[in-house]
Amino acid sequence: MKKLTIFASLILMVQLFLPFSLNVKAEESTELFNYLALGDSLAAGMDEKGEIGYGYADYLALLLAGEDEEAIDFNKGFAYPGYTTDDVLKDITADVTKPITDLTGITNKTLSIKQAIKDADFITLSVGANDVLKNVKKSETGQLSVDLAGVTKSTQDVAVNYEKIFAAIYELNPEADVVVMGLYNPFPYIQDASVQTQLNTLVSTMNKALQTVVEKNDGIYSNVAELIAGNFTTYLPNPQNIHLAATGYGAVAEMMLSDYIVAILGDYEDEYEYEYDDLIDTPSTEAGDYFTDIADHWGNEYINLAYMGGFMNGFEDGTFKPNALVTRAQVLSVIARAFELPATKPAPFVDIKDYPLQTQNEIAAAYEAGLVKENGGYLNPKDNVTRAQFALILTRLSNSFEGEVYVPDVKAPFSDIAKYDEETQNAITLLYDLQLVQGQTADKFDPAGSMTRAQLAKILVLAFLNAEE
Fold first, then answer.
1. List of long-range contacts for 248-253, beta carbons under 8 Å, 24+ apart
2. Does a structural domain hold residue 205?
3. Strands 122-126, 177-181: parallel, antiparallel or unpaired by DSSP?
């Protein structure tokens, strides 16, 4: 997958969950996030009454923009009702020019499709349904007939055209992230159970075929079929119209953004399985769910962001235990995981051999990146990490990424760090300058104090925002 920077993806999450508290970096940037929507009537925004308004693309643009609609450069001007994969491909090949259509509607500005693709950071595509629907006929009495041979041929043609569309996009913009909206059952009100079985099988088969092509081409496939089927009376309120209502488009937009975030940040749930005696990483059933004990906690939003990013998980009982202290092993493991640090050789610590192999590898990666020193072969993995030690770990990580050692012009204004060595004082100053940490009071940092899980979640999220600046 051609990923945006981690910084960009975290900004998207921040705009969803922390529109006021973490939007500083976005405001400092003068370059707008560019979103291009291609496809059929769903991208154009045709609703259940047959009128063009806000579709999933518009609602997705609003989610991406957060509190400021002017923070995004959005265009759905190339999306058109009735479009097939052939139409999208022809538009790109011919380099058509059309009026820009943004959140305010059709504008008096025009743009060629190739230039729009070149400019895009993020592209969504919803097309293929019309290719197949020509093989599905609905009579005036509501009876449905399906040309299975035609459906099979159309599915094959759609897959081929998707290959060509992806190739055309990547030729113009190799770094674009492409998210494809999957297909859904457009006729859920038909009462005949056998027909519904046939329709659902058709939709499932199409989605599997398209998902294979999309993921093969480094795209992100958002399979919305179950989402819409689960609440079709709300999302598809007009039995005589196959288009979604505003609530349906909004739900699809949220799912597509969620799928995008998960794909960008990586889904660690399958890759990493930890078996700490004191921490069982059993995540909640859906990304972004609140843990049972953080609803009123100050770190609620940061904890959910850290969970969605795959940095941290909860306990077996569904809690997060935000005030629990974190150990050296846990901190190194989480950071190695979050920043995808590689390990090419075992760590030299004799006191980590009882930990799971995956944990040992993460500690080895942290050691190899210079986050901790050999210390006579002992990591002391079960010791609680102190605020000063954590500052050192993050600053060494930053130095590793930057390729140079951070040296501040002025030390942080904390009187209780003076007895620490130069490296530690500089580390605390870096985190203070980046506003990743605060003092316990105006002049006290409490460097020997321990770190809680909530504090770790907050600092990791903020650190990610600074990681690629």
1. 249/42, 249/45, 249/47, 249/54, 249/55, 249/56, 249/58, 249/59, 250/56, 250/59, 251/227, 252/56, 252/59, 252/181, 252/222, 252/224, 252/227, 252/228, 253/56, 253/57, 253/59, 253/60, 253/62, 253/63
2. yes
3. parallel
- Residue type at position 150: G
Give the number of other Cβ atoms within 10 Å of residue 235's Cβ.
23
CA atoms within 13 A on the CB side of 341: 31
Contact 457, 312 (CB under 8 A): yes
Range of the domain at 374: 300-467
Whole-angstrom distance, CA of residue 238 vs CA of residue 235: 9
Please, what are the averages of pLDDT over each run of 10 residues along the chain (469 residues)? 40 40 39 90 92 93 79 92 93 95 92 96 93 78 72 85 96 94 91 82 86 92 93 93 93 90 57 33 38 86 73 84 92 85 93 92 93 91 92 88 86 92 92 75 87 86 56
How far, in Å, CA of 171 to CA of 166, rounded?
A: 8
Per-residue three-class SS string for 176-231: CEEEEECCCCCCCCCCCHHHHHHHHHHHHHHHHHHHHHHHHCCCEEECCHHHHHCC
Q: What is the token pair recorded at 146? A: 């399906």
Q: What are phi and psi of 99, to 5 degrees?
A: -65, 145
Tell me whether residue 365 is in a domain. yes
What pTM did the predictor assign? Answer: 0.56
Query: What total of structural domains would you count in the chain?
Result: 2
Phi-psi region of 422 (alpha: psi -120 to 50; beta: other; left: phi over 0): alpha
- Regarding whether 307 and 197 lie in a shared domain, the answer is no
